[in-house]
Specification:
Order of helices and strands of chain A: HEHEEHEHEHEHHHEEEEEEHHEEEEEEEE
Radius of gyration of chain A: 22 Å
Structural class of chain A: alpha+beta
Mean pLDDT of chain A: 96
Number of helices of chain A: 10
Oligomer: homodimer
Largest sheet of chain A: 6 strands, mixed
Number of domains of chain A: 2
Number of strands of chain A: 20
CATH superfamily of the largest domain in chain A: Creatinase/methionine aminopeptidase superfamily
CATH class of the largest domain in chain A: Alpha Beta
CATH architecture of the largest domain in chain A: Alpha-Beta Complex
Strand content of chain A: 15-25%
Strand order of the largest sheet of chain A: 4-3-2-1-5-6
Largest interface: A-B, 59 and 59 residues
Low-confidence stretches of chain A: none
């Protein structure tokens, strides 16, 4: 993954002699470890990787994960005792004047440990790391495409799998199972399978509620595939939809299309958000789109950037985002439609392709 | 969760005016947030909770998760813009002389942000937090018991579900699905479903390999239930076991029993490890038990402590550990048997109860 390491170094405003990525105990593992090593399998708690300006790197890990680490093709130091970690730090950081670290994914405790073992000035290079990670390379897009295909295939079949009377958590179990049977290693986040009034809470997960006649059923989930995250939402209705349900769904769909039409290099992320918000705010559902349009995805499901008024970014080819407008009416229900896209030279490519043109009916 | 907050304060050697737990973007969320709030649902990225010496607390979160946060019964400040987070910090930390933080689960970036918004001296209270979290209270043990029951029930049925020819990742999909159908919200870590020579790698996850006649099949997994993690391992054999397979299995089982017999308040964690290691090292499998005997479980699957020569702890009632000796023969295969226990006043209670006395056969 030399090209990724070089990309990080190219972004630096200030030269450093090395960049040290250090993982702590889960969940506090720096996803950048997997970005620079490309490793698919393994936990790598307490492991580290030291990146050099020429694109070379070396890994520190426990003896238990030596075999897995070697698959990176990088030199590996495998330790059996905790003390050996400090020896490795002392040895490798010796003589460095400036050392880069990733403050947004490094624990304060690990930061202190690094400081105790080096005289180098410590420089925060987290902005440069996220800048590199925001532009996905071909291998990353390939993994994301697979993660998106798995999620899309499952979204496509769900209206036929769900039956009235199923409980929300049983629907989530079906989604997760079907993704794993297609090769996902896990869910990219806790699945949202909400129904009826629960669909009005954008971050609802699941409950014991039974899917019932007249409900909206909102499914928001993603596959984890070779460590990359997809993220899709489809909303269905149980039985024939009411006029109001059709109107809400149609408005969200129109808002998503308006947002997608803006996506191209050079466009501000905020513009895509505003395009969707304007569609919704021009209807009786004004003010009911209560979150940002989307977030970047990659090794994390919130991968460092977003399409919203609070994030100042200009789109570039290789950036990957969710596009997910919604309308939420407390006590009644909500609709969200979410797809994943990669920005291309002349627009965008849709990575998720489950059908959405019609409000699909659960029978 | 006043009692938990008070427990943390009772552990302090140095008085502080408040303890601030701050979450960053996933996966960098401090599990202590859920320990002190008791909240079951929600992501709470970028959220925080400020703990006071009298056991009171207040939450900062985004408007999107206000409803979820209110279920804690604590006062909640819901923000819509990032700037409001800093205003909240400034306002709440004003006048404090000493502020506690949890260095092992706080990012360095969040640490800096706290420092910019307070004049208080910042004190690392991570040891005191982990000391409190290590002794589970009744509510925690109840959740762990349920998480363990779900994992046990699935472990019990798996030898009848697995058929020769199934791929390892399909076995993992079955495990995850069955746990979710029993109410788990997820896997507590990436499932290990290894077969044949793959069972010799303790941290293997899954591959496309087909389960075949003569294989050991090792399943290591856990249920996430109301945020608490269980962790069980059972090893099976496909078809009639060889003498060598029976001997390996019997040795691991004997080692686990020897370790369990030592578990009681006042015992050193290392002693339990050594009891298992001595059984294994007195056989032809000397040196093939290559990891620690166990780790504490709770809100994290590696919850801060362990039963091994490298961790200096004395067992106390309420501590919850895995007990998981194994024998690994590179190129041939491995066996691990893992159960979860809670230390009681006069010994321990087994939380996982899937059968293990005989090496079970997959047909």
């Amino acid at each position: 993954m030399k090209s990724r390491i070089k990309k990080i170094y190219e972004n630096l405003c200030e030269e450093v002699d090395g960049i040290l990525i250090m993982n702590s105990t889960k969940p506090h593992v720096d996803m950048t470890f997997f970005y620079v090593t490309g490793l698919i399998h393994g936990e790598f708690e307490g492991s580290g990787v030291l990146l050099y300006p020429d694109g070379e790197a070396e890994i520190l890990t426990s003896a238990l994960e030596e075999e897995s680490a070697l698959k990176s093709g990088m030199p590996v130091t495998a330790i059996r005792k905790r003390e050996e970690r400090e020896e490795w730090l002392k040895d490798k950081l010796k003589g460095m004047d400036k050392l880069g670290i990733n403050s947004t994914e490094l624990t304060y405790s690990a930061y202190k440990k690094i400081g105790e073992n080096t005289d180098a000035e410590i420089i925060d290079v987290s902005d440069e790391i996220i800048e590199a990670r925001n532009i996905k390379d071909d291998e990353e897009i390939s993994r994301l495409r697979d993660a998106c295909r798995i999620a899309s295939d499952v979204a496509e079949e769900m209206p036929d799998i769900i039956k009235p009377g199923m409980r929300e958590y049983e629907v989530a179990a079906e989604i997760s199972y079907r993704m794993k049977k297609l090769g996902a290693t896990g869910d990219s986040f806790e699945i949202i399978a909400s129904s009826g009034p629960n669909t009005a809470e954008p971050h609802f997960t699941t409950s014991e509620r039974k899917v019932s006649e007249g409900d909206f059923v909102l499914l928001d989930f993603g596959a984890l595939y070779k460590r990359y995250c997809s993220d899709i939402t489809r909303t269905f209705v149980v039985g024939e939809p009411s006029e109001k349900q059709k109107k809400i769904y149609g408005t969200v769909l129109e808002a998503q299309k308006a947002a997608l039409e803006t996506i191209a290099p050079g466009v501000k992320g905020e513009e895509a958000h505003n395009a969707a918000a304007e569609v919704i705010d021009s209807t009786e559902f004004e003010g009911k789109f209560t979150h940002g349009l989307g977030h970047s995805i990659g090794l994390s499901v919130h991968d460092g950037s977003g399409l919203s008024p609070s994030v100042d970014i200009e789109l570039e080819p290789g950036m990957v985002f969710t596009v997910e407008p919604g309308i939420y009416i407390p006590g009644y229900g909500g609709v969200r439609i979410e797809d994943d896209i990669v920005v291309t030279e002349d627009g965008y490519e849709l990575l998720t392709d489950a059908s959405k043109e019609e409000l699909r009916i659960i029978k």
